[in-house]
Design a protein that fits this description.
This protein has 234 residues and is of the alpha/beta class. The protein folds into two domains: 2-68, Ribosomal protein L30/S12 (60s Ribosomal Protein L30, Chain: A, 2-Layer Sandwich), CATH 3.30.1330; 76-233, SPOUT methyltransferase, trefoil knot domain (Alpha/beta knot), CATH 3.40.1280. Helices cover 38% and strands 22% of the residues. It has ten helices and eleven strands. Strand 2 (20-25), helix 2 (27-39) and strand 3 (43-46) form a beta-alpha-beta unit. Helix 5 runs parallel beside helix 6 (125-131) and helix 5 (95-107) runs parallel beside helix 10 (222-233). It is elongated, with a radius of gyration of 19 Å.
Length: 234
């Protein structure tokens, strides 16, 4: 299961066809959601703000919070076969970062998100909250080996762009006209904020890129870097 926190995320979960178990909300949201939740086989409960705060353990009594069944897991190979713009995460373990990355990728019309086993869950409560529910518009899948996944992408004709400030790199803003001509499909690979890209990821990136920054600044938050890369390479 996963938790949809806030009326906007609950609404987008329902619109995406996710099956609710129970939605706890104030009377106004109950009026909005009751029919959809019931038709999908779930239950709507209403309670005062004080009771919602106590039941959920959240300091802010949100207008709605729902428990949903997780949708079927996507297959990475299937996503690779139908996509031309893919984000690959290599040990990005902060749910807020993963949620923001999903939001940027969906907003900038990227097709899919692939995550290794150590990256945070895009359907984690905090990740969904930060994404404002846009995660439901971005197909994602887990991969067991980042190196093998990048090999598959290369075999499908993808240009694989690794984002790193620690190696000889090109400014990501200048890549589209130089390395990515003729609408070549592309994957952007990002690693953990402390360690950066793994050796396996670096081995299969055919382009290494950076975001130009002011002197004395060594890096950007990984979610901010992803947003810039998504925009520059879309």
């Amino acid at each position: 299961m996963f938790i949809a926190e806030g009326d906007l995320v609950v609404r987008r979960a329902l619109e995406a066809g996710c099956k609710p178990d129970v939605v706890l909300c104030d009377p106004k949201c109950a009026h909005e959601f009751a029919d959809s939740v019931h038709q999908a086989g779930g239950t709507t409960l209403t309670a005062s703000a004080d009771i919602r705060r106590e039941v959920t353990g959240l300091g802010v009594p949100l207008d709605a919070i729902g428990v949903f069944l997780r949708p079927p897991t996507s297959d990475a190979q299937d996503l690779i076969n139908v996509s031309t713009r893919i984000i690959v995460l290599d040990c990005v373990d902060n749910p807020s970062n993963v949620g923001t990355i999903a939001r940027s990728a969906a907003a900038l019309d990227w097709n899919a998100l692939l995550l290794d086993s150590t990256s945070a869950d895009p359907l984690a409560r905090r990740a969904l909250r930060v994404s404002m529910g846009t995660t439901f518009k971005l197909p994602f899948a887990r991969v067991s080996d980042v190196g093998e996944t990048l090999q598959l992408l290369a075999a499908r004709g993808f240009s694989i762009v690794g984002m790193t400030p620690h190696h000889p790199t090109r400014d990501v803003a200048n890549l589209r006209e130089i390395e990515l001509a003729n609408n070549q499909p592309r994957a952007v690979v990002l690693g953990s904020e402390r360690q950066g890209l793994s050796d396996a990821a670096l081995e299969y990136c055919n382009v290494l890129a950076r975001v130009e920054m002011a002197d004395g600044i060594d890096s950007l938050n990984v979610a901010a870097a992803t947003a810039i890369a998504c925009y520059a390479l879309r």
